[in-house]
């Protein structure tokens, strides 16, 4: 989760807002991490791709390209899933769902 929150804080514009919400339902923990200053329309699967160099990204996204790939790998190793969803102009959310501990 820290990689996703870090991504949102690094790409937030001044005055932007980031929110985190958590729910437990049907044996899964669901996290929503959103930003009102990030549009995912320019981000497809490469958002999670390993070693995608920053030269291929919009200038507001700087880094080696590993953070979200690491987050996705960890989440998937725990039987979970992460998705990015556009919620309007310049507003996006990351949706993370992982099985609740002890729900076997």
Task: Give me the count of strands.
Answer: 4
Could you tell me the CATH topology label: Heat Shock Protein 90
Instruction: Estimate the mean pLDDT confidence.
Output: 77
How would you characterize the largest beta sheet? 4 strands, antiparallel
Overall tally of domains: 1
In one word, what is the shape? globular
Read across the widest sheet, the strand sequence of neighbours is: 1-2-4-3
Give a verbal description of the structure:
The chain is α+β, with helices and mostly antiparallel strands and 104 residues long. The protein has one domain: Heat Shock Protein 90 (2-Layer Sandwich), CATH 3.30.565. Helix content is 20%, strand content 32%. Strands 1-2-4-3 form a four-stranded antiparallel sheet, covered by helices on one side. A hairpin with a 2-residue loop joins β3 and β4. The longest helix has 11 residues. The protein starts with a helix and ends in a 5-residue tail after the last strand. 15% of the residues are buried. The model has no long low-confidence stretch (mean pLDDT 77).
């Amino acid at each position: 989760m820290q990689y996703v929150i870090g991504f949102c804080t690094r790409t937030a514009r001044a005055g932007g807002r980031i929110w985190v919400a958590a729910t437990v339902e049907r044996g899964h923990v669901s996290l929503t991490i959103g930003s009102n200053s990030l549009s995912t329309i320019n981000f497809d699967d490469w958002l999670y791709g390993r070693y995608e160099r920053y030269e291929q990204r919009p200038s507001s996204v700087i880094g080696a390209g590993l953070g979200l790939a690491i987050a996705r790998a960890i989440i998937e190793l725990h039987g979970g899933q992460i998705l990015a969803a556009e919620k309007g102009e310049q507003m996006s959310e990351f949706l993370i769902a992982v099985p609740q501990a002890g729900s076997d």
